[in-house]
Amino acid sequence: VNGRDNAGARDGYVYSYFIRPRDVNLTQSELGLSVQKPGALFLARVRKTQIDAGRDAYEWFAGLTADGRPTWGPLSSKHPVLEDSNGVGWCVSASFNPGLGRYFVATQHSITSQSRLGIFDAPTPWGPWTTVKYWTDSDRFGAQRPGSELPWRDNIFFLSFVPKWLSADGRDFTLSFTGAGGGKDNDSFNTVRGQFKLRAK
Amino acid sequence: MKKRILLTAVASLLFNFAPLTSGAAAVDEPETAPYPASQVIADIVLDTSSFRHFS
Prior knowledge:
heterodimer, A: five-stranded antiparallel sheet, four-stranded antiparallel sheet, B: alpha+beta, 1 helix, 16% strand
């Protein structure tokens, strides 16, 4: 959702990202809450007026034309819109930053609930993607937090920008995040403020 | 006889390499970002004193 009544939407469609499970024959409970490898996300869209019309109303990103325009088709024609051989998490966030004119997708990779997450940006919901930040085993999200008095565990599995709390120029943001902990520490609603450092034009 | 030797050799290879293979799979894969660095955003800086926890 982009602004009140979705006024900031790019067009009349609602876009949704879907995770590709590592095995389509497994049930949700069999898959568990794990990172799916190799990772891939699919993108579907539906007209805002048809969002409750059922799955046949949705069309799927099916790749780009030679001149870079997206193509859309039925479920059988879907093509990954974002891929990561390290995997994608079992939950994903996506948002638009109007100040920067960029779309952001965030998801974990490698192993779930270890604060190993990536943030990717693109000019459109279908890419082309670049990497904003890729927290790894040796550099985990939030591992360095001087000034914070909160106890810390590296068990984050989800983060998302909060569009309503972006500054007008898009540079200042608030991330909401959550993690494991069985009802303790990061298994809760958490926030941290931050700032984008832009490249010189 | 040659067939038996060949089968024994193959079995030996499988037996010996299987633990190595599974051991290698247990090692973390390189965590390289799948896409090049953003040409718009150089970095993000978190204000680590601003962490808030709502339980």
